[in-house]
Design goal:
Strand order of the largest sheet: 1-2-3
Shape: globular
Number of helices: 6
Order of helices and strands: EEHHHEHHH
Number of strands: 3
Radius of gyration: 17 Å
Number of domains: 1
Strand content: 5-15%
Protein name: DUF2017 domain-containing protein
Structural class: mainly alpha
Length: 164
């Protein structure tokens, strides 16, 4: 997928990949703006408590850092949106800064989806997907697990290109 081309990281995306990435990045932005709620488990995963046994310390830490962290996460999702080709698909070209923003943005999207899909450490994604397909191949869970796997593949591909 991603390959290094001089100082840039390049991938060609088909229309469905563009649509999925646009939707996922837009949902992350919405979660961090319109729907930002500390009681939401996804927000809790993206902004974990720094001091789990000290709610006052966590609140103090959040007071000074949360705004910048939230802005950074929104900017990373925005970097994905900004680099996507039009709806017909095409080439994505990232410089080093944009590639790092994509990695962080893809990670945030995967963390959010992982919480919603109840993916835990050690979950066998292939087995989980096989089970979902066997239960109902047209279910939204099959689609969501496929998107989750795709985001991981894309993230790994970009990271490997950056390490080349």
């Amino acid at each position: 997928m991603f390959r290094r081309q001089g100082e840039r990281y390049v991938a060609t995306l088909v229309v469905d990949e563009v649509r999925v990435l646009r939707k996922v990045a837009t949902e992350v932005v919405g979660l961090l703006t319109d729907g930002f709620d500390h009681t939401d488990p996804v927000v809790g995963r993206l902004f974990p408590e720094v001091y789990p046994d000290d709610s006052a310390g966590t609140a103090e830490f959040r007071k000074y850092t949360e705004g910048d962290l939230k802005t950074g996460k929104i900017d990373q999702a925005g970097a994905i949106l900004a680099a996507l080709p039009d709806s017909a698909g095409g080439e994505v070209q990232l410089d080093a800064e944009a590639a790092e923003a994509w990695l962080r943005g893809l990670n945030d999207a995967r963390l959010a989806m992982g919480v919603r899909l109840e993916i835990k450490d050690g979950t066998d994604l292939g087995a989980e997907l096989d089970e979902a397909v066997a239960a109902d191949p047209s279910s939204s869970r099959v689609f969501q697990l496929s998107v989750y796997a795709y985001l991981g593949y894309l993230q790994e591909s970009l990271l490997n290109a950056m390490l080349d």
